[in-house]
């Protein structure tokens, strides 16, 4: 079992930055692929960024490429999402997710564990 707890959301102006953190329980964090998803009102949940269990391979949605950075600290059982140059269309609930093993997992159904989510609101 893995429990995930996100933090770092909030209200920010257009062009601002936020850093989300996701702390995981358990002793095998380094065995999990980690991802950040987001869901805006009336829209489907979408994959924002993914990082391999070692941290060596990352993936970004086109909409955030060049602005967001995913990273992880396996010693601290934590994954981060640094969000820069935020836009109003980035407003959503952001959730971290975990999947045991390595792979190019894109769909929400591919992930076994989820955090409760944290709200990010970008004002124009």
Textual characterization of the structure:
The strands form two sheets. Strands 2, 4, 5, 6, 9, 10 and 11 form a seven-stranded mixed β-sheet that branches. The chain is 0% helix and 49% strand. The N and C termini lie far apart (40 Å). The model has no long low-confidence stretch (mean pLDDT 96). It is globular. The protein is mostly beta strands and 124 residues long. The protein has strands at residues 4-7, 10-13, 18-24, 32-39, 46-51, 58-60, 68-73, 78-83, 92-100, 113-114, 118-123. A hairpin with a 4-residue loop joins strand 7 (68-73) and strand 8. It is built from no helices and eleven strands.
Q: Residue share in helices?
A: under 10%
Question: For the CA atoms, what is the radius of gyration?
Answer: 13 Å
Listing every helix as H and every strand as E from the N terminus to the C terminus, the arrangement reads: EEEEEEEEEEE
Q: Could you list the spans in which at least 5 consecutive residues all have pLDDT below 50?
A: none
Mean pLDDT: 96
Number of helices: 0
Biggest sheet character: 7 strands, mixed
State the total count of DSSP E strands. 11
Helices and strands: which structural class? mainly beta
Oligomer designation: single chain
**Which outline best applies?**
globular
Distance between the termini: 40 Å
Strand fraction: over 45%
